[in-house]
């Protein structure tokens, strides 16, 4: 028996090896078939994505912190001359911008963060509860106001230190890049043409378009009740109270 075992084992091995080869052949053929299907699908996706770009309606929008569906309205594209937000510095002008930007920083809860796929771990918490956050549209408005301040540096940045100016340059370059990307993301395709204006016949642009705009009041209705100060008390992960106090020292206006 013992002497026969190696032979039996050899036989067994042979039989096993033989049927194994056939099984591997079948598996290999199956794998090749799957591979072919995958390559075909990948090629089809590449070809289709080149010929018909993904349509907006087929994209799933990312979850928004504002849960209600925002209403829209058509607005004419012409900027209104004499807007409170335009023109040189004045107390009324500064007040209008401050009021517009009052909810630059808002208070959101952990469950709201999780709903928009933000892990609350390591996000800055407000000392009085909730998390400090900001809507991107308010970040853009903050950038616009601050860029405008640089048109009137002797008014807004009279006492700025050299170090703060270097930071400010980086900050404003970041702002311009954010605005560039947002402008291209929300590409406004309303059309400009030109007409002759005045005695000297200078070309003047006219925009004929209307555009679909978020009703701003709806954003404010969400943001205003959640507004926190521009210099709130924060908690860091070690539960230490942090509050920034450097703005006056560097001669910089706040936000
Ligand atoms: C943030 O909101 C929560 C829930 O409404 C509230 O308990 C907390 O006090 C708020 N935090 C601040 C800084 O207002
Ligand atoms: C600059 O400093 C002077 C003197 O301290 C002060 O009166 C003025 O308000 C400051 N200007 C700005 C824009 O901070």
TrEMBL record:
Keyword DNA-binding: no
GO BP terms, alphabetized: mycotoxin biosynthetic process
Keyword Membrane: yes
Pfam families from the UniProt entry: UstYa
InterPro entries reported in the protein's UniProt record: UstYa-like
Membrane-crossing residue ranges in chain numbering: 27-48
Keywords attached to this entry: Membrane, Transmembrane, Transmembrane helix
Family: Belongs to the ustYa family.
Protein name per Swiss-Prot or TrEMBL: Tat pathway signal sequence
Higher taxonomy: Eukaryota, Fungi, Dikarya, Ascomycota, Pezizomycotina
């Amino acid at each position: 028996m013992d002497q026969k075992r190696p032979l039996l084992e050899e036989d067994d091995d042979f039989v096993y090896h033989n049927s194994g080869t056939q099984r591997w052949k079948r598996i290999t053929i199956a794998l090749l078939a799957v591979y072919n299907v995958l390559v075909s699908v990948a090629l089809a996706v590449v070809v289709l994505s080149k010929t018909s770009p993904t349509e907006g309606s087929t994209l799933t929008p990312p979850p928004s912190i504002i849960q209600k569906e925002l209403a829209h309205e058509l607005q004419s594209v012409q900027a209104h001359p004499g807007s409170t937000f335009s023109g040189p510095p004045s107390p009324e002008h500064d007040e209008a911008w401050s009021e517009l930007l009052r909810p630059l920083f808002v208070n959101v809860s952990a469950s709201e963060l999780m709903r928009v796929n933000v892990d609350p771990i390591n996000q800055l918490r407000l000392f009085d509860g909730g998390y400090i956050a900001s809507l991107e549209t308010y970040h853009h408005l903050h950038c616009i106001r601050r860029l405008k301040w640089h048109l009137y540096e002797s008014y807004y940045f009279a006492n700025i230190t050299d170090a703060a100016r270097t930071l400010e340059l980086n900050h404003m370059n970041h702002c311009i890049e954010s605005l560039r990307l947002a402008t291209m993301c929300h590409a406004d395709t309303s059309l400009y043409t030109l007409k002759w204006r005045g005695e000297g016949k200078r070309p003047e642009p006219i925009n004929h378009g209307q555009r679909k705009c978020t009703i701003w009041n709806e954003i404010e209705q969400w943001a205003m009740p959640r507004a926190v100060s521009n210099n709130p008390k924060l908690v860091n992960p070690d539960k230490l109270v942090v509050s920034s106090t450097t703005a006056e020292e560097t001669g910089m206006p706040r936000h």
